[in-house]
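PROTEIN DATA CARD
Card holder: Electron transfer flavoprotein alpha subunit apoprotein
Chain length: 307
Origin: Enterocloster lavalensis
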Amino acid sequence: MGKIAWLIVGDFGHICGMVSAARKAADVVRMVVIGSGQLAQAAASGGPDSLYWLDTGEKIPAEALAGQAAALIMQEKPEFLLCLDDPISRVVWARAAAALNAAAVGTCFDIACSGGVKQARRLVAEGKSVVLVETENVLAGIFDGDDTEADGSAAAINRIDVDEPKAAMKFAAQGSQTSFKKEGLKAAKRVVGVGYGVGSKAELEQVKEFAGHLGAEVGCSLPVAKQLHWFEEDRVVGITHNRIAPELYIALGISGQPQHMSGVRDAKVVVGINNDPEAAIFRKCDYGIIGDVGKLLPALLEKAGKL
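Structure generated from the sequence above:
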């Protein structure tokens, strides 16, 4: 049968890109999807050789099916185990990687196999350097490479009967105010991000007014929520919280650290405003303004008010 790669999909993301990366290293690409029928359809369009769908329905948390997904993968020991970079995929990936006694290499954008040695390439040092990791074990990685276009082929969807979770795991609440806020941020076409460089909490009213003129949601960097407590953590933009893909992202006083920028990698246009000309944001944005956010806000408000 040749080399096998199992892919784990628990949310929408760079599905086609992950399939494309797996095809470079494996002869057979299989996929397990944990989630809705809509997610399964999107994953099938990525073109894996086979797709197995665990339908969570409305009552079962996706994380509760991690054991069943891992057992499915364990039926044939693969050479590679990849997942998308989202919380649900990571939970299932960790369960399967442990069961396979795999070498977990973390995030990677490319995989290969040379003479029985599995390889993964990872970006480090804010994307300035590439590290090659090699192992003779099963290689388990979290795919953070670029997406690709679907090639037109779609896999048949094999629906798997879901086992009733043995663990006492259930949804405590649905449709809470917090979840509505988070979905608003993730679905927004425009987002204004708040960082340390905004200066003081007093400036937030102007930021919200500015966002209002743009029809934008307001998000923030992790330190602003965790250390300054200006926002709840459901407003954090970054790889560990909200990964967003707006048409426009305006970063106010955000330095541009990898944790944050990974959360906006799919934004169409990124504008960075920071008073530090050496800030990392200026190496990653489409448009940059060097200046003090507090002093620039009145001018931004005036212009936005005329839109």
